[in-house]
Write a structure and sequence with these properties.
2 copies of one chain form a homodimer. Chain A is of the alpha/beta class and about 350 residues long. Chain A has a single domain, classed as Alpha-Beta Barrel (TIM Barrel). Chain A contains 12 helices and 7 strands. Chain A has a 7-stranded parallel β-sheet. In chain A, α4 (about 130-140) packs parallel to α5 (about 165-175). Chains A and B meet through α6, α8 and α10 of A and α6, α8 and α10 of B.
Chain lengths: ~350, ~350
């Protein structure tokens, strides 16, 4: 006779648990499935707008023709910077696997997307957990005329100002490609640190609120570590982190630098002065003050007419149409944010000469 | 014959290393000594204003008579909330030792400081790594008429919204004591997480810039975890973290809550609406925008006339006199920030009835 003390049984589908779950988890798991162990927080189902699934049932954002119709044509988008959906990759402990994955992403975008519409441009994925390999990827594809940027997931063990990343920055500067930082999965797998300055977030709601803290920390670290003295042409743009924290950060850095400048002796200007030359922010998602004029005041404080660039976050659930910019903005400011700032930053044609979908000017 | 493969030699004083060190470290170590291992970042020598050492050579801030003269009398301070200098204690892994230490701090303040001047009031230290013990300390001394608050170091393994801290919050609410949060030593000893949202700071300069990120994370965590629904009378005040980030945080929380409210179903109001009833900020150190009107706009956005309370940070190096408030502020706002807001918050007499140093009204 035998006693087996360890037999792993399972349920056929998570739905079988539903009768035994109380609300609100019953509804949550019925609608979205179980929370993934790699983040531990609930994300909306794929984070997608319900209406963005292509007619053939393929995933939202996977069909160039459908995106062209639903985004580019509908909203008069002259250029769309494709940024993919692999923000977990820089959290993967195996750098060789991660490097292979981002290269495959990049080649797939070049093969399947760029030929479909001249308005599609792309950000080049890199696995920054291996800076030398990331630099090689930039050298491999950074000269492609439709590659406008290098793309970082924010998920990292080491703050981006550290010299560990210098090989990437050398390559990006050599190819004159700005680096976009997009929220990743802080706290998951490799990812140090936790996603907020106080530790793990409980929910996707709290995590999403906290993205701006990460961008504040990275912006301060990049500037105070002297990255922009080491790489005077290097530029970053911060995606999905909001905007209204930037005046605070600039002013606090300047105030503290005045008393403690011996701790960053390589800086030749006030910390805030590096922002205009090296940092841009994108619009989505925008803060929502109760008084619209407060957002306009923030726009003035951070010089949004130069620093802010429109982004829709299509096909994600919190997509912002171009009309999401605050009313009360001057026509000039609106044009700069919707087009000119990004054209200047990425070296795209000026507004009146933007091509149509066949590439005609 | 013997070969000893491990013999620990040392130098008599760190000064002996100076001839072998290049600048700027030679000067730094000569002036400030070696960086402490518990934080790994340089702090100014004790962080003190050079002129605050009492005439007898004792440490800055250790002599009630000297503080009375240099701070209270000189600046017409009606009440001074003594907050001590033990912000490392909540990072100590031994909770019994930490609890003994904060109790000793509290008893010492009651014995040596409160009898010296009626204007001295105190914040009660607690070792929040042991919530039950911290609650007992609040019950032991929270009824003392000169105890106006409970004092948290920000150094914590767990975000403050977690129910782990509920015993402390029950006790603080029972005694009607608001909780002050002061920067601690994130990244040192017990302290999870690192002091910024991107990981360890390189320098004291970067660490100090990052304090506001921690306060943003804690404020979001307290509100989104529903602490103020569980403890409707509980209040917090955030010390030394700046102010201009609060509008951003309120607006971003509200914007995201509108789409994700099922993740914090216990909230009965918009996240920002909890701020006015439950959160206060102190003034020092203030952000320094190049245009003074920008700070006044921020004051309006966060309702500084109700939420902001003056603090000097005496005797620290970045002390702010009451005159550090921005010019352009109305006399009414100035009075509220310098006195009325704190009087309301801590239950002190209204301005015209504030006592003199002998306690006469």
């Amino acid at each position: 006779m035998i006693i087996d003390c360890d037999v792993h049984h399972t349920r056929k589908h998570v739905r079988e648990l539903l009768p035994y779950l109380p609300e609100p988890w019953k509804t949550e798991i019925a609608k979205y499935g179980e929370r993934k162990m790699n983040a531990g927080i609930l994300q909306q189902e794929g984070g997608m707008r319900w209406d963005t699934q292509p007619p053939d049932g393929s995933p939202p954002g996977s069909d160039p023709a459908h995106m062209r119709e639903q985004l580019l044509d509908r909203y008069n988008i002259a250029y769309a910077l494709l940024s993919g959906s692999g923000h977990h990759i820089t959290a993967i402990p195996d750098p060789d696997y991660a490097t292979a994955l981002v290269s495959a992403w990049n080649d797939h975008t070049i093969a399947h997307w760029l030929p479909q519409d001249r308005r599609f441009k792309m950000s080049l994925w890199v696995a920054h957990q291996d800076p030398a390999a990331a630099a090689r990827e930039i050298d491999r594809l950074g000269g492609h005329p439709d590659v406008l940027a290098v793309w970082f997931s924010s998920t990292t063990r080491i703050p981006f100002g550290h010299r560990w990343f210098d090989p990437i920055y050398e390559a990006a500067q050599r190819h004159n490609l700005p680096i976009g930082i997009h929220p990743g999965q802080g706290g998951a797998m490799l990812a140090q640190p936790a996603p907020t300055a106080a530790g793990m977030a409980r929910s996707y709601l709290e995590w999403h609120v906290g993205v701006s803290q990460l961008y504040m920390a990275q912006t301060a670290n990049l500037i105070l570590e002297g990255v922009f003295e080491r790489f005077p042409q290097l530029r970053f743009f911060l995606v999905e982190g909001g905007i209204a924290w930037l005046p605070h950060l600039m002013w606090r850095m300047d105030a503290h630098f005045k008393g403690l400048r011996q701790q960053a002796p390589w800086l030749k200007r006030l910390p805030s002065e590096y922002v205009a030359d090296h940092i841009r922010l994108t619009t989505q998602p925008m803060e929502e003050p109760r008084q619209a004029r407060h957002l306009l005041q923030i726009f003035e404080m951070l010089d949004a007419e130069r620093l802010l660039m429109y982004a829709s976050d299509y096909p994600h659930w919190d997509f912002d149409a171009p009309t999401a910019l605050p009313s009360g903005l001057s026509a000039h400011a609106r044009e700069r944010i919707l087009y000119d700032n990004a054209a200047d930053f990425f070296g795209l044609p000026a507004r009146l000469r933007a091509p149509d979908r066949e590439g005609r000017v």
